[in-house]
């Protein structure tokens, strides 16, 4: 991934002009102040600070990804470009998430959880979005076509932005100040001739004597890729058979019963890449008035239609066994059944399992609408020291309708078996009448809503011998609400899917904040931030941040930040009704034969806020004797306490198995002899995270052999990642994702005025399989891309991703296809191209 890490000289040389015209990061309009010589000096705002300044140098490490880099590498969604960054870890949901994703796409900075990375749009909060009562932003709602650049702040920023910025901030800056018309067409396909993507977008803008108006529209479509269509995919067998099984036995074809053997291959129905269709409209405006007041506004609307597909419903029901006095609501065990060992358990029941292939695959569909509008007024106070004021309002709303075709009603299923015992136990296909009786389409709906009012004041306080002390102060009111209504069949517990209750709730928060930048000497500058938040739910939170920059020489700058942070419990964590999840687990008692075991999830209205400490320390080196070269090295550490979490269920199972008197048996509701029928995972504030590592960036621009060259290398070395006292450093697992010690992105470009060729590679280091302890192979992906400017109007681009068609590494507890699709490329080689026309 081609990215730029902000450095002192590199910014001064090449980024100032871009930044000065388009950064507006907190609702404070980027206005000019009067210098001593009466010339206008542009003040800009940088992600991570509200203080306007003349350059982009701060104590915090910030990475910038340009729109040109995004297009050159063929990214068609925001989550793809972000997850390719070395600073990402874990397993954020995205285009490759088929089971349980609801079509959303998220970002997971440092692998600390998507809920701990704050996403901003033009410096203001983006509404959470998805299927309803969501705790993070669905990146699908932000089309790539509207992006001017993406800025990633890689330290804790709660003192500046409030809740959710524990791991950092992703600030997406949209295109503005555009004049003319631009049409873009982009598409891709795989070497297997599937998984096609297509996007068309248009951008139109015009200037007036006192402003600019920019409008855009985009349409994109992504086709699916079935798991079994990749030859490296091993069949994923399940013990739920299309013919059905009773107490683990199946008919042998001769009137008797035998133990079931081969299972059903669910990879023939499941996706590696999920289908997605999006429609987006967006607009930006800047309007200056005669009294020097400036109005800025942006609007966004996105409709997403997405699908996932899983194998036909695996149904498991416990059937009452008839005795001599029983009525018709039971099954009669024949002599052949009892001779085969089929018998009732101590409760008088027997288990029947069947993969309901007669109904068809489960097709999950979502239709979501996300709307956001943000507007602000800004101006200067009529005083000599150039004070700037601003007020802003942001409104966001998300609504979703979801469905699951070919769902199975477990209550109707049991009654049908009692009434049609021969039909169900024969092993033959089911009649249309039976299928219609037991199947239905599951319907649910949900949404999120957000209101944010803010006001601020910033400017210069006074001069000291080393320079000017600058400040920013402000206040904010934010209201958040969310709801989710499952299908009545699911709420009643009659579905073969996990039971789930409705979610509905809201909260508000009042915040005040301040920042001060103090030049202690010509070389040493301090940055100080303090924030106070008062929530209607858990109460009050105070956070602070201290940053220092020291220009040791003209070539070397040292920087460091210490900060505290917090994350308020989300609506789903506070008010989410009990729900179930089929997690990938191993039953140490051996009672459960499948890797997916039902876990009951619960929420808690009394949850408190998470707390965090973060530290970064590094250097920026831009040697004067090598023009165009810059190096950055940053150490980082994040510690989260009082974390809202669900304890590790697998660890609980293992502890209870080892000691039946262990507290884990009660904590997870594990019954005697490993009874997992009420296995529960409750949200609690006893969690913790502790992670640290080192980021390294090298950027070098130079001319040689009549060509212009750019080399960029990003490396993240993970020193430690612990969660709830369990060390996941350099581990990979289907539930948690990957925490590789080494991730590296390398990029080299060469070109002239009209053309550019780029080679890049992405390395994910060798890891250890969390379940087995086996080594999981490292992967190196190779990519090539080219851009050619046919004329001032027409630009062509093309490229190949994963040139060598690398196979994903095998993971024993993989979430899909024996691997982790959120970590590795499961689609294979892709060809892409595009054309851009400007008028």
From TrEMBL:
Residues 362-803 form the TonB-dependent receptor-like beta-barrel domain. Keywords: Cell outer membrane, Membrane, Receptor, Signal, TonB box, Transmembrane, Transmembrane beta strand, Transport. SUPFAM superfamilies: Porins. Residues 1-35 form the signal peptide. InterPro entries: Beta-barrel_TonB, Beta-barrel_TonB_sf, Plug_dom, Plug_dom_sf, TonB-dep_rcpt-like. Residues 56-169 form the TonB-dependent receptor plug domain. It comes from the Bacteria. It is a multi-pass membrane protein. CDD domains: ligand_gated_channel. Its main location: membrane. It is found in: Cell outer membrane. Belongs to the TonB-dependent receptor family. PANTHER family: PTHR47234, TONB-DEPENDENT RECEPTOR. This is TonB-dependent receptor.
